[in-house]
Design brief:
With 239 residues, this protein is an alpha+beta fold. The protein has two domains: 74 residues, Arc Repressor Mutant, subunit A (Orthogonal Bundle), CATH 1.10.10; 139 residues, 2-Layer Sandwich (Beta-Lactamase), CATH 3.30.450. Helix content is 55%, strand content 17%. It contains ten helices and seven strands. It has a five-stranded antiparallel beta sheet, with helices on both faces. Strands 1-2 form a two-stranded antiparallel sheet. The two termini are 57 Å apart.
Length: 239
């Protein structure tokens, strides 16, 4: 294939990979700064289409690569591969380190919550840096409480909230690093209006997260508030 035609084909493939849209001659001339005119580029695109490297969708004047066009591109992209190697290697290392840091942070939060469930007969929940979700432990603790064991509908409603949209609900509340307490009807979630909710924010890996305790209104507020503060302080020293 002639060098100019090859260059145009590879430019079309790169553009299509990036935009998923048909590529026109004017766009190529402006984006890749070809020295030839848009008319010359159109002529070469026509030749490439006749040779089976490009296709012309009915809805557009631009061209898209065919399977043969992609195959040609792959066969001639090894110079670009070599250019990309150091870039991709740096990106991989950065992303992998971010993943490791988030994984360590997640595990730290999970372990702290696990310990906290040993200290309170309620549900303990927290958000983690790596995902927009809330995890919780201690459901078996709550099921033993008479407020829940005698009223399965209440327990079911609480569990449904925790499993579904609790993470988004937390972000609607005015929560700071000082423990905030919602008792009974003060809760904005109908399913937990028979409960008490103690929640605080904390910062780990430069992200604002939440930790809290959910249980019946008949709960040891002083101990639970102190426990959340202790866990929050511990977690923030780990970041």
């Amino acid at each position: 294939m002639k060098p100019r035609r090859s260059t145009i084909l590879q430019a079309i493939v790169k553009s299509f990979i990036s935009t998923a849209s048909p590529v026109g001659s004017k766009f190529l001339q402006e984006t890749f700064e070809f020295s030839c005119s848009p008319a010359t580029i159109r002529s070469e695109m026509g030749n490439l289409e006749q040779e089976g490297y490009l296709d012309s969708p009915h809805t557009s004047a631009g061209r898209i690569p065919t399977e043969r066009g992609f195959r040609y591109f792959v066969a001639h992209c090894y110079e670009d591969v070599e250019k990309m190697r150091p870039v991709v290697q740096r990106e991989f290392i950065d992303e992998f380190q971010k993943y490791i840091n988030e994984k360590k942070a997640d595990e730290t939060v999970y372990d702290a919550v696990s310990v906290l469930t040993r200290m309170t007969p309620n549900v303990v929940f927290a958000t983690v840096p790596s995902a927009e979700r809330t995890f919780f432990l201690g459901l078996s603790n709550v099921l033993r409480q008479p407020e829940f064991s005698g009223n399965p509908d209440v327990a079911s409603g609480v569990f449904q909230i925790l499993e579904n949209n609790f993470h988004s609900v937390l972000h609607t509340l005015d929560i700071s690093d000082e423990a905030k307490i919602f008792i009974g009807s003060e809760n904005i979630i109908p399913e937990i209006k028979s409960c008490s909710l103690i929640v605080s924010s904390f910062t780990i890996k430069k992200k604002k997260e939440y930790i809290g305790i959910l249980g019946p209104m008949r709960t040891d507020y002083a101990k639970n508030i102190a426990a959340i503060d202790a866990v929050k302080d511990f977690l923030e020293t780990q970041s």
